[in-house]
Amino acid sequence: MLDILFYVFAAIVLVSALLMVVSPNAVNGAMCMIVSFVGTAALFVLLEAYFLAILQVLVYAGAVMVLFLFIIMLLDVDKSEGSYFKDKLTLGAAIIGFALVAILVCSAFAGANHLPEPGLMPVLENPTGEGVGIPFTTSSKSFGYSLFSKYMLPFQVTGFLLLAAMIGVIVVSKKHEENS
Amino acid sequence: MTVGLNAFLLVSGLLFAIGLLGVILRKNTLVIYMSLELMLNAVNLALVAFSRYNGTMDGNLFVFFIITVAAAEVALGLAIIVALFRRRQSVMVDQLNALSR
Q: Which residue of B has its CA nearest to A154?
């Protein structure tokens, strides 16, 4: 049952991502992108990362894509003339590059001599906070444990990065006086 | 679930390849930017799969940080694109070629 769900959601993610890349209208592309993000959240649920699945829907499919749609509609860039792709040479190069990466990925992860396949680890329902590593749990409590013990410095740096981004956005989007 | 790690990595790698295709192929800066987000998302999927099959929480924490950084990056990048549009009245990369002339 879960295998069928995996194949269905993987197909949804890949097809909608491809539709985003080839769709001529940027708004349609953003809609396909939202479908792709929600499909990724479903794959996260299959991997039992429930907290990250909710975060993916809230942050990516919610905040980020709403910002993208807002900017696409604000700038109204779809009325430009000409092709939506670059010239023929770039088209050929892009397709050859895509094919090479796809062949690499398929030969590494599928087929006869793929990489070794580890089995599923048991999942703890509740973290203890003891031991050397942080075991994989389904509860979001372990995020709190990790963020305030092992990942304290990255947590602080990320907070500072958010502050810097906020100030940067304000500075960049401010209208400059032309005579300055 | 009998689906193994390799299947998730295959999906993640193909998603990354599609994002790369979009970055190279498209003219519209906003679509290029969305393709970049797609590539970040593919890496997120690979990290969560590694975390689940390794039995540790570190991959999930990395994805947490990546989502935070990506949100900040999107806000700043879109502000830069809006400033660019104000100055040049276009976001198509084939018209933003002042350095190549």
A: B65
For tokens 């999107």, name the residue: B74
pLDDT tens readout for residues A128-161: 555 556 777 878 888 888 888 888 999 999 999 9
Domain that holds residue A161: 144-174
**Number of domains, chain A:** 2
Interface of A with B in 5-34 (CB under 8 A): 6, 10, 13-14, 17-18, 20-21, 26, 29-30, 33
A32 pLDDT higher than 90: yes
Helices B29-54 and A65-75, packing angle to 10 deg: 170
pTM above 0.95, yes or no: no
Residue A129 has a pLDDT of 54
Contact status, residue B5 vs residue B50, Cβ threshold 8 Å: yes
Position A79 pLDDT exceeds 70: no
**Residue B2, φ and ψ in degrees, nearest 5:** -95, 0
The CATH code of the domain that includes A40 is: 1.20.120.1200
Within a domain: A159: yes
Ordered domains of chain B (ranges, CATH): 5-90 (1.10.287.3510)
